[in-house]
Amino acid sequence: MTVAVPPEVVSALRQARHVGVLTGAGVSAESGIPTFREALTGLWARYDPAELASPGGFARDPERVWRWYRERRMAIARAEPNPAHRALVDLEGRVDRFTLITQNIDALHARAGNRDVVELHGNITRVRCSVENVVVPDFEDGDAVPTCPACGACLRPDVVWFGELLPMTALERAWAAARDADFFLSVGTSNLVEPAASLPWIAARSGALVVVVNPSDEGQQHGPTIHHLAGPAGQVLPALLAAAWPDSAAETPRVDS
């Protein structure tokens, strides 16, 4: 695949003071991680998603919800960061300020080497007390639902469930980055689900050059400062870095720029 990177995108990235990035499920999919609904196969296909990912579903059957998330954690643990993840690590090391915002819960950005990730939907590798909402760093990831060492309540995955609000601290950091960045990447997301969907367009209205990396631009906004690079993130991002910095170590196809 040949990725054509417009010269104005290359120039803006080289000169960027603050690069903001929003990643979605498309990045994780290239590491073989299915979306929540795609993972509802086999035994789990008969369940309403809300029974597996809502406070009410957890209250009714915490053991079932725990087993579901334990299976997902085990599958994610077998996955590896892909070239898109590694390109974002490379990019972080080349710019003055870098804010990585993700809708993914798999922690692959951190495993790849990104130092500070804003996790809008939480992190499946962490757990927190279901009553006190305090993250518990050490827990037994077995078949039984572990309990909080402080109060004895059930521990739950530290992710955002149906009916819950996104963590305000993470959301405020994301909004601030979108308003401050002068170059903003939207990668592997359709930008249809709010509030994360608005972040690239907030950045564009605030003066940033926005690059949307997605196989399709269906549903995406368009404008003079919004560029669309169609294709898999694992090919487009390394090509973008190679266009801006020919010494980039990212795996990349041939680039026309």
Write a concise keyword list for the protein shown above.
about 260 residues, alpha/beta, Rossmann fold, SIR2/SIRT2 'Small Domain', 2 domains, disordered C terminus
CATH architecture type of the largest domain: 3-Layer(aba) Sandwich
Mean pLDDT: 92
The helix content is 25-40%
What is the count of DSSP helices, taking H or I runs of 4+ residues?
10
CATH superfamily of the largest domain: TPP-binding domain
Query: What is the CATH first-level class name of the largest domain?
Result: Alpha Beta
User: Structural class of the helix and strand makeup?
Assistant: alpha/beta
Query: Whole-Å distance between the termini?
Result: 14 Å
Strand order of the largest sheet: 4-3-2-8-9-10
Beta percentage is 15-25%
How is the quaternary structure best described? single chain
**Strand tally, please?**
11
Q: Ranges with pLDDT <50 over ≥5 residues? A: 252-257
Radius of gyration: 19 Å
Provide the number of structural domains.
2
> What is the molecular shape?
elongated
Question: What is the CATH topology descriptor of the largest domain?
Answer: Rossmann fold
- Topology as a string of helices (H) and strands (E): EHEHHHHHEHEEEEHEHEEHE
Please give the largest β-sheet. 6 strands, parallel
Walkthrough of the structure:
With 257 residues, the protein is of the alpha/beta class. It has two domains: 3-33 and 79-121 and 164-256, Rossmann fold (3-Layer(aba) Sandwich); 48-78 and 127-159, SIR2/SIRT2 'Small Domain' (2-Layer Sandwich), CATH 3.30.1600. The protein has helices at residues 7-15, 25-29, 49-52, 55-60, 62-78, 83-92, 108-112, 168-180, 199-205, 233-244; strands spanning 3-4, 18-23, 97-102, 117-119, 122-129, 135-136, 155-159, 183-187, 209-214, 226-230, 255-256. Helix 1 (7-15) crosses helix 10 (233-244) and helix 6 (83-92) packs parallel to helix 10. The longest helix is centred in the first third of the chain and has 17 residues, at 62-78. The model is unreliable at 252-257 (pLDDT under 50).
